[in-house]
């Protein structure tokens, strides 16, 4: 199995542990020798490359029985570059797997799928084309299901939390530490769906093993945690005050993460749980924050 992860050195994603524990042989895309070594220490193999190295991606896909594509540049100051890299990678993998019926599982997100209610797996992604978020990669990958690729999309909650998380939650803690205040936007009623890293890893593994071609899964453990509760937990962890940040001031306070933290992003995973026989068992987001791992020096 070839997994495009682009993980940070010393922080092998739990999806690798989950796949290895289930008996899969894993080859992971690694940006550095240190990343490759951390994969090998777990019992996987490392293949040097990144999302711009399409030859390495094609070669890895060609040699694999299945491809798990979870990487993204997440360059929020240059989204065009992230979108292009994501779209190019999906096309490279899809072209190699076309006609083989081999599994191709890719990461997407629940953000922006619907407005005003929790997103479900039956809601189609509204993002099409190279100029859309993530380059419209979910719809692009699902098109390959019509070309003999066993495509499965896993939409992740905006926060995949737990030890080793370098994503949005770590960014929010960093802002609060720098500003000396844990902020929320407006009245803080907007919600973030959430999932623990261990639960997300099981969705990836079960989705690879059990989901039918064309399936859309939700790696979501909690339907929606209010922004104010998140800020209050960060405030407790850092021992700093908690305060409302006016929407007009939010970008200046939070920086790039404001575009996500100000959004209402609830989502359900009922269909995924029934299809895969999966249920989230990891800590909740607030329990994870109260556990202290985000606040260690």
Automatic annotation (TrEMBL):
Residues 16-211 form the NAD-dependent epimerase/dehydratase domain. Residues 33-52, 116-138 are annotated as: Disordered. SUPFAM superfamilies: NAD(P)-binding Rossmann-fold domains (SSF51735). This is SDR family oxidoreductase. It comes from Jatrophihabitans lederbergiae. The lineage of its organism: Bacteria, Bacillati, Actinomycetota, Actinomycetes, Jatrophihabitantales.
């Amino acid at each position: 199995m070839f997994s495009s992860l682009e993980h940070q050195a010393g922080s092998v994603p739990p999806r690798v542990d989950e796949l290895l524990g289930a008996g899969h042989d894993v080859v992971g895309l690694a940006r550095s020798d240190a990343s490759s070594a951390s994969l090998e220490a777990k019992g996987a193999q490392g293949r040097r490359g990144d999302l711009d190295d399409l030859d390495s991606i094609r070669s890895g896909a060609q040699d694999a029985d299945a491809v798990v594509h979870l990487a993204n540049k997440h360059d929020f100051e240059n989204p065009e570059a992230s979108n292009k890299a994501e779209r190019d990678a999906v096309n490279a993998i899809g072209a190699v797997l076309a006609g083989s019926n081999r599994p191709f599982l890719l990461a997407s997100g629940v953000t922006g799928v619907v407005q005003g209610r929790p997103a479900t797996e039956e809601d189609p992604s509204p993002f099409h084309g190279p100029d859309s978020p993530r380059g419209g990669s979910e719809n692009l990958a699902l098109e390959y299901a019509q070309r003999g690729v066993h495509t499965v999309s896993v939409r992740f909650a905006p926060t995949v939390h737990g030890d080793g998380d370098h994503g949005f939650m770590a960014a929010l803690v960093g802002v609060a530490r720098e500003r000396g205040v844990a902020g929320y936007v407006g009245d803080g009623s907007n919600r973030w769906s959430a999932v623990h890293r261990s639960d997300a890893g099981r969705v990836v593994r079960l989705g690879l093993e059990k989901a039918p071609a064309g399936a859309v899964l939700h790696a979501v453990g909690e339907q929606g945690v209010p922004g104010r509760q998140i800020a209050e937990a960060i405030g407790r962890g850092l021992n700093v005050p908690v305060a409302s940040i006016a929407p007009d001031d939010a970008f200046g306070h939070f920086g790039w993460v404001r575009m996500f933290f100000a959004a209402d992003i609830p989502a359900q995973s009922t269909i995924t749980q029934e299809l895969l026989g999966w249920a989230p068992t990891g800590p909740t987001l607030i329990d994870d924050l109260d556990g202290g791992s985000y606040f260690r020096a």
